[in-house]
Amino acid sequence: MPKILAVTNQKGGVGKTTSSVNLAASLAAQGQRVLLVDLDPQGNATMGCGIEKRSLRHTVYHVLLELAPLAAVRQHSVSGKFDLLPANRELAGAEVELVDQPQRETRLKKALALIAHEYDYVLIDCPPALNLLTVNGLTAAHAVMIPMQCEYYALEGLSDLVNTIKRVRTNLNPTLEIEGLLRTMFDPRNTLAQQVSEQLKQHFGAKVYDTVIPRNIRLAEAPSHGCPVLTYDRNSKGALAYNALAIEVVQRALAKK
Ligand code: ADP
Ligand code: MG
């Protein structure tokens, strides 16, 4: 059975997209069959996989509104060696257009049910909001991966996210779990980052991934080349960190079986 992970945090700029794209690539490099779902109208994950978002005829938008078959939407990222359901700004309209449609929260789940068996991991890159798109992601997922920067307001935002997860669990997806919290853009010389990191561990214990993603310029550069960091600079600290995360993610999945 595939593992479906929603990569979520309603804060922007915490490393959701960077983590989605690079974890997808590292899992694929380790022999896992991976599908990445870009659920953000910004389409950054799509571009980061080397797919030109402006030239797409069909995207996740058409999946959610049931306007096109999955086969017409699905792309393959050559640079990442995984498949992609891409997105662009058209997806921003889905929120409004779905409002009076039935089962609007379960559209992605329903679509993924048709193809998820072809994969070992499905990663969903959520937008920076607790909106209907994110709810679709949380409803389709088995578990949530929460990337976060260890800074002062990080924990505050987390309670809103945890409440949303609880609501989705009550109403739509009773088995939804928090898979793990991922510390991103980490600078070990920063005392505040260390303190927040300690608080995270106190609060969430083993849910905090051992792997820490350091701040690494290669991770920021890779998307402009349309590829994951593994393709761009496989020996960079960023690439090694996401390789380590992929190993940890797989080990956690095996431990649960
Ligand atoms: P989100 O998807 O949560 O909005 P992104 O993954 O797009 O966040 O990251 C925000 C910005 O920070 C991007 O410009 C990205 O390239 C950069 N970035 C993300 N992670 C790192 C990192 N570990 N080191 C350096 N830059 C990073
Ligand atoms: Mg993003």
Descriptive notes:
- It is a single chain.
- Strands 3-4-2-5-1-6-7-8 form an 8-stranded mixed beta sheet, with helices on both faces.
- The chain has a single domain (3-256), classed as 3-Layer(aba) Sandwich (Rossmann fold).
- The longest helix is centred in the last third of the chain and has 20 residues, at 237-256.
- The mean pLDDT is 96.
- Helix content is 44%, strand content 18%.
- The protein has 257 residues and is of the alpha/beta class.
- Magnesium ion binds next to helix 1.
- The site of adenosine-5'-diphosphate has 17 residues, from helix 1, strand 7 and helix 10.
According to CATH, the homologous superfamily is P-loop containing nucleotide triphosphate hydrolases
> What are the distinct ligands in this entry?
adenosine-5'-diphosphate, magnesium ion
On the 0-100 scale, what is the average pLDDT?
A: 96
Quaternary organisation: single chain
- Rg over CA atoms, rounded to whole Å, is 17 Å
CATH fold assignment = Rossmann fold
Query: What does the largest sheet look like?
Result: 8 strands, mixed
Adjacency order of strands in the biggest sheet? 3-4-2-5-1-6-7-8
Describe this structure in a few short sentences.
The chain has 257 residues and is α/β, with parallel strands linked by helices. The chain is built from twelve helices and eight strands. Bound molecules: adenosine-5'-diphosphate and magnesium ion.
